[in-house]
């Protein structure tokens, strides 16, 4: 029989043993929390990631910042652009002239002289060839000695050598004329003038000196990430990458990508086969087809900082917490599976070896 309340009121010690309401609520909360923690640790999935920092780069080499150089030595006579100007391919940037203002006229006169030398050499060689034919006929008739015939042949060879030398000289003059005619330096492609080498305007420049830097307007962009060598074995072409761009508001949850905000999707394009001097591997990430479009080029420019998370295997929260506490590498389950499948494929692809039957067996 249960004791009535009025009976328990007579026993103060027994009444004091009853746990207070706060303790009962706290115990229930601890029990519920423990069950919830166990469920989270062993039932909730966690997407493993390996992260790295990097920057936005141009995928096409032609989309990177290019140096516009002087083609001929001389001095800059005129600038056609200023910093920040937009240019199209072939637009003039600067005019470089030689210190000698009469250089082009002198080269033209030298070319005319060489052409006259070539004409004289051709005419002389034609006459010498006639002499060779005449000497051959007289030699056959016994009217001249063989020495005269051979001398006429040597004369033809000399004129041929002089003609070749004159033509080579003409080629050198033409090359000089072509170079001097390229005094106007033009833009190699569409873009914007990022900076002008103002020091080149008042001093002599040599062929190859930088006059200006040209940056493209609409480059094909990619993200260059530096990944730790411990995790690079799991980073392969086609892996999904979550990217956070510098200056772009974003919230990242590494284990639950669906909860993240302001992130952009990419995929691994290539992984360098060798590490950098600091032990990090360079990974190129390109936009993922069908995913959210990356910000415009005027919002995320070349050289902007970025951070990326490469998605790896899916494990439980408890395993990920245990791995992080022990500083273990990510789960290599998929890598082992691919390795096993590759070994099985190699074994199945091995050709069957024919066993040669012993002699006299009749087979």
Automatic annotation (TrEMBL):
Region (Disordered): 333-363
Keywords: Coiled coil, Membrane, Transmembrane, Transmembrane helix
Biased composition (Basic and acidic residues): 334-349
Segments passing through the bilayer: 21-47
Coiled-coil region(s): 104-131
Protein name: HlyD family efflux transporter periplasmic adaptor subunit
Naturally occurring in which organism (per UniProt): Novosphingobium aerophilum
């Amino acid at each position: 029989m249960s004791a009535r309340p009025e009976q328990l009121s007579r026993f103060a010690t027994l009444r004091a043993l009853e746990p207070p309401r706060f303790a009962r609520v706290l115990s229930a909360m601890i029990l519920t929390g423990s069950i919830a923690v166990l469920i989270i640790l062993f039932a909730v999935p966690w997407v493993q990631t390996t992260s790295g920092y990097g920057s936005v780069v141009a995928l096409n080499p032609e989309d990177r910042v290019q140096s516009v150089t002087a083609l001929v030595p001389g001095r800059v006579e005129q600038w056609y652009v200023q910093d920040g100007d937009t240019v199209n391919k072939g637009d003039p940037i600067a005019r470089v002239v030689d210190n000698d203002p009469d250089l082009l006229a002198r080269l033209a006169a030298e070319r005319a002289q060489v052409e006259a030398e070539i004409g004289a050499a051709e005419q002389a060689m034609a006459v010498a060839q006639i002499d060779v034919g005449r000497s051959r006929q007289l030699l056959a008739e016994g009217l001249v000695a063989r020495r005269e015939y051979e001398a006429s042949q040597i004369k033809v060879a000399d004129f041929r050598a002089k003609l070749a030398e004159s033509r080579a000289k003409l080629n050198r003059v033409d090359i000089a004329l072509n170079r001097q005619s390229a005094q106007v330096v033009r833009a190699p492609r569409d873009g914007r003038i990022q900076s002008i080498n103002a020091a080149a305007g008042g001093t002599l420049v040599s062929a190859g000196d930088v006059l200006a830097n040209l940056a493209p307007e609409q480059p094909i962009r990619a993200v260059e990430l530096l990944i730790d060598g411990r995790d690079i074995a799991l980073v392969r072409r086609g892996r999904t990458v979550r990217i956070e761009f510098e200056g772009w508001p974003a919230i990242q949850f590494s284990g639950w990508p669906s909860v993240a905000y302001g992130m952009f999707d990419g995929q691994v394009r290539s992984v360098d086969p060798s590490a950098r001097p600091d032990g990090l591997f360079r990974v190129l990430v390109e936009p993922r087809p069908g995913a959210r479009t990356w910000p415009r080029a005027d919002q995320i420019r070349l050289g902007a900082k970025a951070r990326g998370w490469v998605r790896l295997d899916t494990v439980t929260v408890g395993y990920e917490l245990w791995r992080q506490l022990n500083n273990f590498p990510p789960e290599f389950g998929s890598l082992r599976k691919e390795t096993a499948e590759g070994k099985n494929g190699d074994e199945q692809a091995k050709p069957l070896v024919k066993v040669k039957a012993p002699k006299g067996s009749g087979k």
